[in-house]
Inverse folding.
């Protein structure tokens, strides 16, 4: 589905700001806008000094309000791509705080306030049998998402307890600030994804084919 293509396009890195606008086509999918509760996302651990916080999300709802995927040929085998999405959501989070072999775990509910993300970079899109192969060429390490919750305040209580045991060798204020943003790792350069034509709607196939023909 085009949602898969869009997910792949998230994992692309920045073009230089001084480069001319390379985009020739804008792709949309009616299936992307709306509420999603089945998206799989790994959250990068948060490490501040000797403290590491590992976050997992047993359940979540992400509402995509609007999006667009812009594509343009850079050369015969490389495509410039920019994904822009406006979204909000909420999630249940399990946070595990670890310091020097000591661990403590708490649950919390977090909110993703209304926000917009735009990521720009390079991919390769090619026909492959009865579908399309998408290869990431350049990728950033992660995308950042703003969150709001009581998690940081609750973890700060644990953090200060650990700070006492480590004679103050923990920066709890820095940990509080770090937890206002979660980082979602993105695909590394060179990863390939296959999108079957059978998983695309007629309109989604039409948009992709229109782009590949003009390239």
């Amino acid at each position: 589905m085009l949602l898969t293509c869009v997910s792949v396009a998230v994992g692309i890195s920045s073009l230089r700001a001084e480069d001319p606008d390379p985009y020739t086509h804008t792709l949309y999918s009616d299936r992307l806008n709306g509420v999603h509760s089945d998206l799989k996302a790994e959250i990068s651990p948060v490490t501040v000094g000797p403290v590491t916080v590992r976050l997992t999300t047993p359940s979540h709802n992400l509402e995509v309000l609007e999006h667009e995927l812009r594509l343009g040929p850079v050369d015969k085998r490389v495509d410039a791509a920019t994904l822009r999405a406006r979204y909000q959501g909420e999630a249940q989070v399990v946070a595990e705080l670890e310091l020097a072999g000591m661990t403590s775990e708490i649950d919390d509910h977090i909110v993703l306030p209304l926000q917009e993300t735009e990521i720009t970079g390079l991919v390769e899109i090619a026909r492959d049998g009865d579908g399309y192969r998408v290869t990431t060429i350049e990728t950033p390490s992660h995308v950042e998402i703003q969150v709001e919750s009581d998690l940081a305040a609750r973890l700060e209580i644990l953090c200060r307890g650990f700070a006492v045991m480590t004679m103050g060798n923990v920066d709890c204020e820095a940990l509080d600030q770090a937890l206002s943003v979660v980082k979602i790792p993105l695909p590394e350069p060179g990863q390939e994804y296959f999108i079957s034509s059978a998983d695309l709607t007629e309109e989604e196939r039409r948009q992709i084919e229109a782009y590949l023909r003009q390239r």
